[in-house]
Design brief:
Chain A is an alpha/beta fold. Helices cover about 50% and strands about 20% of the residues of chain A. In chain A, helix 1 runs parallel beside helix 2. Classes of the chains: A alpha/beta, B alpha+beta.
């Protein structure tokens, strides 16, 4: 059963995951589980993690996001984090959070563009 | 400096992180802090609450509203009866962790707030006090 507030939608060969505004630790962990299961089920090539409603991004949440992106990468997918609010970006930077090599995008539209162009590049090679 | 005790929240399980965040968010917003400062305060509070759960298992957060020369501020006191911090200077170093985390909690919270004080005694417990002041204009 999907956790409350997490939406996992398959869009073509991608996954669009929307994170609830104030998820507790359990929901955050469940999100990781849901994402990986859906990656396998739909054989997705990429993941867009929409965090535009998220008001608080603490170190636990950030670590789970980075971990999830690494897991998705091992499964052959690419992750783009979309829609981080400016207040969250300021706070995350001052807190000292780093998002490693994960690509970020201003919104879901741009995230989809990034993934689609990277996938078509991969195909043409 | 005038204190008025506003609220206190018991910390005992992961679910309490959400309660603490919501309590602090509501008070900080009603005091007139802007979105970015509210986010800073709530994120710092989230880290400090997690520290209590991780190191002491349980504790309490007390929220005070401050008034200094007509300027309002918010004070958050995190108290636990846990093992205490053997070396506060070391615990304040970015990347140092004894609890399996990222080691951002204490130094990160300090950067997000205006003031931080730590009092700790081995096997007695730890008190962390953070404050943020409302700036006019």
């Amino acid at each position: 059963m999907p956790a409350e507030g997490i939406s996992v939608i398959k869009v073509r060969n991608l996954l669009l995951v929307t994170v609830p505004a104030n998820p507790d630790d359990e929901t955050v962990s469940m999100m990781q589980d849901e994402v990986l299961k859906a990656m396998e089920k739909y054989e997705s090539k990429g993941l867009v993690l929409d965090i535009s409603t998220v008001e608080t991004l603490d170190s636990f949440f950030a670590r789970t996001i980075v971990e999830t992106a690494q897991m998705v990468a091992i499964m052959g997918g690419r992750t783009v984090i979309a829609g981080m609010r400016s207040s969250v970006a300021i706070t995350a930077t001052q807190l000292g959070l780093t998002f490693g090599k994960i690509t970020t995008a201003l919104d879901v539209d741009r995230a989809l563009d990034i993934l689609e162009s990277s996938l078509s590049e991969r195909k043409s090679q | 400096m005038r204190h008025s005790c506003e609220e206190s929240v018991c910390i005992g399980s992961e679910g309490d992180i959400i309660t603490v965040r919501k309590t602090v968010r509501d008070v900080a917003t009603s005091l007139g802090f802007g979105v970015t400062d509210v986010t800073r305060i709530v994120t710092a509070v989230s880290e400090l609450t997690r520290n209590i759960l991780c190191f002491a298992g349980s504790g309490v957060m007390v929220l005070n509203i401050l008034d200094k020369d007509g300027g309002a501020g918010i004070e958050l006191i995190f108290e636990d009866k846990g093992p205490g911090i053997p070396d506060i200077e070391l615990a304040m170093k970015v990347g140092y962790t004894s609890g399996g985390g990222l080691g951002l909690g204490l130094p990160g919270a300090k950067r997000l707030m205006d003031e931080m004080e730590i009092y700790s005694e081995i096997n007695k417990g730890t008190t962390v006090i953070v404050r943020k002041w409302l700036r006019s204009g």
